[in-house]
Amino acid sequence: MRGIVAMSMLGLAAAGAPASPPPPVSAGDAGARVEIRAFAFAPARVEVRPGQRVAWVNADPVPHTATAADGAWDTGEMARGASVAVRFTEPGVYRYICAYHPRMRGEVVVAE
Amino acid sequence: MTRTRNTLLAAAATAALAAGCAAAGDKAADAGALGDLEIAHAAYTAGSLDIRYAHLALAVSETPEVRRFAETMIRDHAAVNDAALALVQELEVTPQDNPLSQALVEGAAAKRAELMALEGHAFDCAYATNELAYHQLVNRTVAETFIPSVTVPELEALLSDALVTFRAHEAHAGHMVDALGCGA
Q1: B12, B4, B21: which is closest to B111 by C-alpha?
Q2: Which positions in chain B touch A62 (Cβ < 8 Å)?
Q3: Does residue A91 have a cis bond before it (omega within 30 degrees)?
Q4: Which residues contact B51 (CB under 8 A, 6 or more apart)?
Q5: Any CB–CB contact under 8 A between A39 and chain B?
Q6: Which helix (H) or strand (E) holds A93?
Q7: Mutual orientation of helices B99-116 and B19-29 as an angle, nearest 10°?
Q8: Which residues from B are below 8 Å from A38, CB to CB?
Q9: For the complex shown, is ipTM > 0.90?
Q10: pLDDT tens track of chain A, all 112 residues?
Q11: CA-based torsion, B166, B168, B174, B176: positive or negative
């Protein structure tokens, strides 16, 4: 599977469970942070290096996901306040949507 | 063209709605006379009614896009209503029933009866066009009447947050109407 990724929960927040704001991605994992607010991924496009993580944080009152357009990866449901990080290991452009609100779109660009 | 057609479809659906929903529209015009607790009740009621529509859609429709939309309505309106419940518990108040809530309930019951007589594509389009019209009505009421009228900052914030969600639903419903070819 191209760009095999690993998912992890940040801090005390579990996907699908309401939680307090998660801690920032640690310096060792430094990648990118995407806030989900007002039914949009902000920023809609992030760039990271191979091996870095992208952390999605849901600031909306309803659940969202970040789901690969090709189905290769999925954060799963994130309730308000929840955060899930995905590590991208291979260069490429990874487009994704919210599985629940498919007009929400973003992309992760992985480059050296 | 798409937006014009959706607007026309929504207008037709609204006009064709049972008296209860039209009455809800009339009551919405008077919603400025409602207090905070009545507004909270009406907003919660509107969300609950859309959840009921969605459950009906899941019971009847076999169209994947309609089913996904219905699942989203259940998920999202439940989340918004949970936030509303948490707020009233925090404020230790009790939302108050009122003529607008009652009109919404009456209209929704009539609309459900209409929908239950349908199946297949006819049901899908009736559900989709009603979702578009319903969200347009609710969003207009929330934006133009509820939010300007509430006096409790936390309730205003909750309604403003909810309006973002409901507007996304309205857009999603519009796309669903297009995708189904309703009225085409």
Answers
A1: B21
A2: 75-76, 79-80, 165
A3: no
A4: B73, B74, B77, B78, B81
A5: yes
A6: strand A92-97
A7: 150
A8: 164
A9: no
A10: 445 455 654 432 334 444 433 344 444 466 999 999 999 999 999 999 999 999 999 999 999 999 999 999 999 999 999 999 999 999 999 999 999 999 999 999 999 9
A11: negative
